[in-house]
Amino acid sequence: MRDRNFDDIAEKFARNIYGTTKGRLRQTILWQDLDILLASFGEKKLRVLDAGGGEGQTAIKMAERGHHVILCDLSAEMIARAESAAAEKGVSDNMQFIHCAAQDIAQHLETPVDLILSHAVLEWVADPQALLKTLWSILRPGGALSLMFYNANGLLMRNVLVGNFGYVQQGMYKKKRRTLSPDFPRDPQQVYSWLETAGWQITGKTGIRVFHDYLRDKQKQHDCFDALTELETRYCRQEPYISLGRYIHVTAHKPQSKDNL
After folding, report:
1. Most buried by CB count within 10 Å: which residue of 43, 78, 137, 220?
2. CA pseudo-torsion sign 109, 137, 190, 173
3. Which of 17, 30, 21, 14 is nearest to 215 (CA)?
4. pTM of the prediction?
């Protein structure tokens, strides 16, 4: 098994993910959480790592707020797109771009970071625990992790609702690897267990797109976007809706070491 590189479909990725209501909604709900997370640091300007940051939408917004952001990605094409977007927004001085897999970022950093963003990466890597181990190693004690992953529960629910019974019954095995459908959907309980076993303290869980993708009338995703966003916001941080989100966003902290207490 190999990690996914988006060099070959970067344009399709940008168009089909970020250029849709599902991309807009994902960013809206994600930033509700990130605003709260950033507020917990006070007025401090943070050293932020966006591990597998793609085209840099979230990283650039962080840089616009004055934080220093390091973006790494396995795809050279994604790095190039992120650099171009950062230049257009005038935040290049607040950013650093590193062409490498997220699992290899430790060798490129001289000092730990305050905040790690890892969004829609865990479902593309063959060894997720190795990635989480790396992220732990480069985060300072007291720092925070923002982890968003593709939810296997949501994938199952969506396929049952559209009648793909055979696909579900055979385990939702993905035959074609060169698509935008993630290679390794993650079981939420397993992800939570990985984090807690490693020492992370989970502080928040949010379902991303808990209703949007299940609408029978797809036109309502566009026509009723504001009302849908309000409902998503109202229910996305409570069960059973968290566990039905197409993605789940987890915030976690690395405990302070005894020396820092």
Report:
1. 78
2. positive
3. 21
4. 0.90
Extended beta strands in 52-200, E state: 68-73, 95-99, 113-119, 139-150
Measure CA 187 to chain center: 15
Give the whole-angstrom CA distance, residue 149 versus residue 113. Answer: 21
Share of the chain above pLDDT 90, in %: 84
pLDDT single digits (tens) 159-177: 999 999 998 998 887 765 5
Binding-site residue set for S-adenosyl-L-methionine: 26, 52-53, 73, 102-103, 119
pLDDT at 113 over 50: yes
CB atoms within 10 A of CB 222: 10
Structure tokens of 141? 């004690």
pLDDT band of residue 185 (cuts 50, 70, 90) is very high
